[in-house]
Amino acid sequence: MTATTKMNGIAAFNKALHIAMEKDPKVLVLGEDVADREGGGVVGFTKGLSTTFGDDRVKSTPIAEQSIIGAAIGAAIGGYKPVAEIMLMNFTTVAMDMIHNHAAKLRFMSGGQTSVPMVITTLTGAGAQTAGQHADHLEAWFAHAAGIKVVAPATPADYIGLTLSAIDDPDPVMIVMSMMTLFGPMEVPDDQGPIPLGKANVLAEGSDVTIIAYSSTVLTAFQAMPKLAEAGISAELIDLRTVSPWDRETVLESVRKTGRAVIIHEAVKEHGVGAEIAAVINEELFGELKAPVRRLGAPSCPVPFAKVLETAFLVSVDELVETVTATVK
Amino acid sequence: MSAGGNRMTPNPEQQVDIYRRMVRIERNDDAIRQTIKRGRLQMPYYSARGQEVIPSAISAQLNPDDTICTIYRGIHDMVAKDMPLRPLWAEIAGRVDGTCKGKGGPMHLTHPESGVMVTTGIVGSSMPIANGLGWAMKLDGSKRVSIAYFGDGASNIGAFHEALNLASLWKLPVIFVCQNNRFAEHTRYENGTSVDQISKRAAGYGMPGYTVDGNDPSEMYAHAYEAIERARSGEGPTLLECMTFRFLGHVFGDDDKYMTKEEKAEAMEKDPLPAFRARLIADGHATEEQLAEIEKKITDEVADARDWALEREFPSTDELKRDVFEAEIA
Ligand SMILES: Cc1ncc(C[n+]2csc(CCOP(=O)(O)OP(=O)(O)O)c2C)c(N)n1
Question: Are residues A22 and A53 in the same domain?
C-alpha cells in the first residue's frame, strides 16, 4: 500500500505546481497576486513557489487579463510552459480574445508551425454567495471552442494528476476549479502521478443507471449514492474529469450496460455540456436505452445572491435522487 | 519627443538595403492587387502601399531570430523581415505549400524561420503576445527583441494599454510600432483617438515614446536603432508612433470616399519610394543601374513566387482534423 497524506484541493494543486516546476525549468507561473510577496495567491494556490523558484519564473501581474493570457501565449510560442491564473472564471470574459482567437487557434492557423503549451487555471462556483459575477461555470464556452482542452477536477488526488498532465500537454488546457472541490481534505497518495486528460473515472459501479458528473457535482452525486442504494437503485457514477475532449468510450460503455443516464452539472442546463453528452448517447445508443437521457443543471439565470435563491439555483442531492429514481422507474 | 544623443544614421549600404526591402514590399503589393483584379486570387487584402519605410528601416536592423507579431495589414512587415515569397504566396492563395498549409491565409501568416510568429486579424492583439515572446527572450538570457506592429486605431483598444503597462513593468525587450496611417477602417484619426499624438500615451506607462516621420528612412532608422538598443540592453520597451499614409482603401475594393482628394494627392506626391530612390542616387549611395538591377531581381522574384504558388495544390480536407491539437482529433 502506498503512503497517503490528507490534503485539500488547494494544497494538492500547489503540490502539483511544485512538482512540475521542479521537474521542468521551462514551467512558469503568472497571474494576479501569485508571488509570495503578494501572499501566494488569494486562496494560496501558489504559496511558496516564488520563494523556491524565483521571481523570474513566478510573476505577479497587474490586473490585466488580456495581458496575462497574451504574455502566456507569447512565452508558450517562445518555448516555455506557462501556467496563467485567471483569478475567477468570470474574468476569463475579459481575456476571451486571447483565449479563443489566439491560444486555441494559433497551432491550426499556423499549419502546425507553432504551438501554445500553456495552462489557464481559474476558480469558480456558487455556494459562497458571491452572486452574479464571481461564480459562473462557463466550461461549455471553452468546450465549444476547438483547440483548447477543459479539465474540471473534483478530488485533491485529481488536482495533482490532472494538473501535471495539463502542464505537460503540448496544447492549451484550461483547469476549472470549483470552490466546492477545494476545501474538503481527502487522502492523496504521496506518489500521485499524472492522470491522463480525456479519461473519465468510474467512481462506483452499478447496473441500473449511469450518473455522469464532473467538478462540484461529483460531490453532490457522492452524497446521493447512499440514498439511491437505500431505494434499491444500483447507480454507476462516472466523474468525467475532462470536459473536453470527454471520454465517450467510458460513458457509452457504461450506458450500454445500464440503459439509463442522468447527467449533472453546476452550469446552466440550457446549451450546457450535458446537452452534448445526452445527444451523443442518443445518437449512439438509441435502441438500447430503457429511458430518456436526463440532464440536471442550473436554471437559465445569473447566479443569485440570497442564500435561499442560491441554494435553489444549485442542483440539490434530493433533486438528483428524484431524477435518478424517476429515470429508473 | 525626438530621440536624443548621437543619432544613428544608416550607412550607404544599409540605405540600399532599406530600399531593397521597400521595393520588395511595393512590387509584392502590386502583384497581389493585380492578381486579385485578374480573378486569379480570392482573398481579403489590406494593402500597406505607402507604409513601406517603417518595417524596412526596422528590419534592416533585426536578426532572423528577432520576432514580429503583426496584423492583417502586415504582409509588408513580413516581406521586410525577409520572409520567402513562394510560401507567402502559396499561403495567400490557400495552397498546401503555403507557410501554414493554406489554413491561416492572408490574415494569419506564421513563419518562425523569418521570425514571423503571429499575424492577427483582431485589432490590438499583437501587443500582449509580443510581450510574452519578449518575456521568453528575457528568460532565455538572449538579446533578441520582439516587435509588435499595429495601427493607430489599435491604440484605443484595452489590450494596447494593458500591454504597454506590463512591458514597462517587466522591462521587456519589446518595441511597440504603431503605423499611424491616419485612418482606422473609415474613421479619421481625430474621430477615434483622444490625443493628438499616440506617442504621448507612452508617458502614462513609464516608457519613452516618439512620433517619427515613418516615411523618412533615416529618421525611422535612427529611432528604431535607439529602441532596439534599449531593448537589447535590458532597458525595456519603447513606443514608436510612425506617421505615414495608406494610399489605398482599408481593404481591396473599398472606394476610400472617407479620404479627401487633396490629402490623398498630397500623400501620393510624397510617395516614399521614388523619393528615397532619387535621394540614394543624388547622395551617390547607388547608381541608377544598381537600383534598376535590384528592382529587376525583385520583380522576377515576385513573378516567380506568384506563378509557382498558383500552380500548387490545394490542401486535402484531412487537414481539417490536423493541427487542432498536436494529436489528431477523432
Ligand atoms: C477587435 C476588432 N474590432 C474591429 C475589427 C474590424 N476592423 C478591422 S481593421 C479595423 C481598423 C483598424 O485600424 P488601425 O488599427 O488604425 O489599423 P490599420 O488598418 O489602419 O492598419 C477594424 C475596426 C477587428 N478586426 N478587430
Answer: yes
Q: What distance in Å separates residue B36's CA from the closest CA in chain A? A: 22
pLDDT tens, residue by residue, A94-105: 999 999 999 999
Q: What is the pLDDT of residues A286-313, one digit of tens each?
A: 999 999 999 999 999 999 999 999 999 9
Residues sharing a CB contact under 8 Å with residue B75, sequence separation 6 or more, in sequence order: B25, B28, B29, B32, B46, B48, B88, B92, B106, B109
Q: Are B159 and B40 in contact (CB under 8 A)?
A: no
Please tell me whether the peptide bond between B128 and the residue prior to it is cis, using omega within 30 degrees of 0: no
| Distance from the alpha carbon of residue B113 to the mean position of ligand 1, in angstroms | 27
Cell of A65: 487579463
Q: Cβ of B242 under 8 Å from any chain A Cβ?
A: no
Q: How many domains are contained in chain A? A: 2
pTM, 2 dp: 0.95
When CB atoms are compared, the residue of A98, A101, A110 closest to B110 is: A110
- The answer to whether residue B212 is domain-embedded is yes
Check whether B1 has a pLDDT greater than 80. Answer: no
Spatial contact of A33 and A42, defined as CB atoms under 8 Å apart:
yes
Instruction: Please tell me the predicted confidence (pLDDT) of residue B330.
Output: 59
Is residue A236 a part of any domain in this protein? yes
Shortest distance, CA B319 to any CA of chain A (angstroms)? 9
Query: Which domain covers residue B173, as residue numbers?
Result: 12-183+191-308
Q: Is B154 in the pocket of ligand 1 (CB under 6 A)?
A: yes
In short, whether B251's Cβ falls inside 6 Å of ligand 1 is: no
Q: What is the ipTM of this complex?
A: 0.92
Look at residue A93 and tell me if it is in a domain: yes
Last residue of a domain, one of A124, A158, A189: A189
Is there a contact between B326 and A107 if contact means CB atoms under 8 Å apart?
yes
